């Protein structure tokens, strides 16, 4: 359990308190530092999640603790060190900025909503942030995933973490979940705007690669909609950019282990394009809403090296949506729609709330 997980003690109900709404923006997570010990702690939590690795525990845990963590922690820490900023992890910085800007956007639209962010693995944990929101009086919480495409390995794991926290509570807030927005018009428009702006500043490529995070192929056959939702995002984005089928390729990155994952794989795709005569390729990662190790190191560094080594001449990585204004507006629209029916704009009646508390106290309520 993360060190900042809440104790089982529940927050007490307080009479005369206005119903409050909160949004918790949940991203995957990041180590606290680009060091082997910090990365080991992060990987142990991440790869120890049954949603992420579905191999039976009796088989997987000895491999994880006896082989993977001892060998991979230092290598991964070295990769993290290449993208680390003076202010810390890029993924954490971008997620924090998104939450702050979303709070501002909602306020400008007249919504009385508190916005916080959490990481599924690492800090701040989902449990600690939910507890903080509940302790601050939140009675309705929207869980807004940073994953546009639903997957059991990501979105469902967030739901698991929320459920685990809820089991520790006597008075559970009303909870809603945003499971997907892979085809949301605002999200697609924000992606198109981000790519078009890059092209206005740097010119257009011969070919655009849209690289999504990979998952084992078996998840598709077991009913996970992730592959289909990635494909729909790509189709809609291609239409928004007026790209033909020969101008764009969808691929999947971040393979792990020996099992077959969703294809085609990103690095071989880049190499094939270069060997086929493509001189310039641009790569965007629509499945990531914040730049992170998988985009800044795996694509912008390793992908670039693979393309150039195979004969390509010019490689452009197009950054994620991060805190782009168009994306914040789209994210706000998604949040507002999912909060439909929750009163977030009317000011509470202070006199009525005081009268409610007075009546409750007269009946013997402690608070």
TrEMBL record:
Signal sequence, renumbered to the chain: none
Keywords, sorted A to Z: Cytoplasm, Heme biosynthesis, Iron, Lyase, Metal-binding, Porphyrin biosynthesis
Keyword Metal-binding: yes
Enzyme class of the recorded protein, top EC level: lyase
Keyword Chloroplast: no
Gene encoding the protein: hemH
Protein name as it appears in the record: Ferrochelatase
Subcellular location: Cytoplasm
Enzyme Commission number: 4.98.1.1
NCBIfam families in alphabetical order: hemH
Biological process according to GO: heme biosynthetic process
Function recorded in the entry: Catalyzes the ferrous insertion into protoporphyrin IX.
Chain residues that bind Fe(2+): 213, 294
Reaction(s) catalysed (UniProt annotation): Fe-coproporphyrin III + 2 H(+) = coproporphyrin III + Fe(2+); heme b + 2 H(+) = protoporphyrin IX + Fe(2+)
Organism encoding this protein: Ramlibacter cellulosilyticus
Superkingdom field: Bacteria
Cellular component, GO annotation: cytoplasm
Pfam family, one: Ferrochelatase
A GO term for molecular function: metal ion binding
Listed pathway(s): Porphyrin-containing compound metabolism; protoheme biosynthesis; protoheme from protoporphyrin-IX: step 1/1
Family: Belongs to the ferrochelatase family.
